[in-house]
Amino acid sequence: MFDTHCHLNFKAFDGKVEEVVERARKAGVNYFVVPGTDVETSKKAIEIAEKFNGIYAAVGIHPHHVFGSARQFLSHESLTPLNEIKKIEELLTNKKVVAVGEVGLDKHIYKKTKYQDYKVYPEFIEGQKEFLKAQIELAVKYKKSLILHNRQTKTDLLKIIVEPAVAKALAGKAVFHCCEPDIELLEFAKRHKIYIGVDGDVTYWKEKQNFVKKIPLEQLVLETDSPFLSPKPLRSETNEPKNLDLIASFIAKQVNITKDKLIKITKENSKKLFQIDLKT
Fold first, then answer.
1. Judging by beta carbons within 10 Å of its beta carbon (0-12, 13-18, 19+), is residue 108 exposed, middle or buried?
2. 2's torsion region: left (phi>0), alpha (psi -120 to 50) or beta?
3. pLDDT > 70: what percent of the chain?
4. Residue 159 CA to chain centroid, in angstroms?
């Protein structure tokens, strides 16, 4: 199996990565993509990927972490997000980096955050858009795949990625990570050859269970989003890539195919999405 999105670079796995990977492999999960959410976690994703066969990294700045620089950026003390973006660009030359991500837009009010006085305000969203556009440019420039985060920002996100040059460059090389169960997003994904990532929340969210039945199998990829979104019956536990087996079993029943067939299809989709040859 291929876990296309797991944050082995997060604090929840400090000092535990080796045992977490071992448990995953015993459960049949042999391939992983570890996305960064800022410069430091992007570097850590690469460090992890370099230590293990079958593990790849993505590098990028999550929209949540634009908050730390949004005021400076939009007060024109710095007219472009060059410092952070330049650091991300430097990481893209590493051979284990297969994607730019996790990047996107997010209007959610987070209750748990390291940022004081966190709130969503217009300048913050504008900053997110600028960071997203800059990182899309990097994906295009370096011919990398793109992991897209979207939370309560569908209209703004689609306006950015529908641009003809962007859509053409990303066709078959982008994924809606933890995709919201939204038919407009799905139809957009179908038209523009964007993959749909499905996580453990499908095991307890009825709307997502109905949604997954509508996803073309050739556009479906599996994720855990570890350490988040643990599937039933493990919702009180820290999520791990090993739980991809539970997710795959559940989805296979929803779409009425065998688990083995689902695993084969989604593994092949994941290879295409990230442009990798799993023989190497």
1. exposed
2. beta
3. 91
4. 19
Q: Where are the alpha helices (DSSP H) in the chain?
A: 17-26, 39-51, 67-74, 82-91, 122-141, 154-161, 164-170, 183-192, 206-212, 244-255, 259-274
On whether the CB atoms of residues 211 and 263 are closer than 8 A, the answer is no
For the chain, give every domain's residue range: 2-274
pLDDT in tens, 56-83: 999 999 998 886 665 555 554 444 556 8
Quick one: how far is CA 231 from the chain centroid?
17
Note the CATH number of domain 2-274. Answer: 3.20.20.140
- Token digits for 120? 């969503």
pLDDT for 89-148, tens place per residue?
999 999 999 999 999 998 876 677 666 677 777 888 888 999 999 999 999 999 999 999
10 Å Cβ neighbour count for 56?
24
CA–CA gap between residue 144 and residue 40 (Å, rounded): 20
**Which token pair is 34?**
């570890």
Spatial strand order in the sheet of 174-176: 2-3, 31-35, 55-59, 97-106, 145-151, 174-176, 195-198, 220-222
Burial of 116 (0-12, 13-18, 19+ CB in 10 A): exposed
3-state helix, strand, coil in the chain (%, to 5): 50, 15, 35
